[in-house]
Amino acid sequence: MTTDETGRFVRLRVDLVLEIEDLRALTGAALERIAADPLLHDDERAHAESAVREDGAEALASLVDPFDLLSEVPGVELTQASWSSEAVAHDPDALEWDLDDEDDDTADDEEDEDDEEDDRAGEGAR
């Protein structure tokens, strides 16, 4: 792949934590969407309905559609998507939710590059 081709594709990662404030409303909306989906076969529909009744995270996942999220963005076409949801313990003060985390990853990458350069320099001295 050329640089021009790889520059055309972008992986967008979004990590959200949502609080379900009304499980009944969420489940009801998910069940309505499932019932209205003309592409689902009866066995698939029954499985989806069971999953959203048992798990709020499944209900949420059935309502979120990355294609819908990007449909109004000009100049892009979604070529591939995957998403999932899961119940999590959430502590807003935990380090894993630090908004400056991206900066830490950059520093780690720079350290890794420095380590690789040191390794290469050591190999040349042998």
Describe the structure.
The chain is mostly helical. It is 56% helix and 0% strand. It is built from six helices and no strands. The protein has helices at residues 3-8, 23-36, 42-54, 56-63, 66-70, 101-125. α2 (23-36) crosses α4.
Low-confidence stretches: 117-126
Number of strands: 0
Reported for the largest beta sheet, the result is: none
SSE order, as H and E?
Answer: HHHHHH
> What's the helical proportion of residues?
55-70%
Label the structural class.
mainly alpha
Q: Overall pLDDT, averaged?
A: 80
Short description:
The chain is an all-alpha fold and 126 residues long.
Give the helices and strands, then pairings.
Layout: H1 3-8, H2 23-36, H3 42-54, H4 56-63, H5 66-70, H6 101-125
Helix pairs in contact: 2-3, 2-4, 3-4
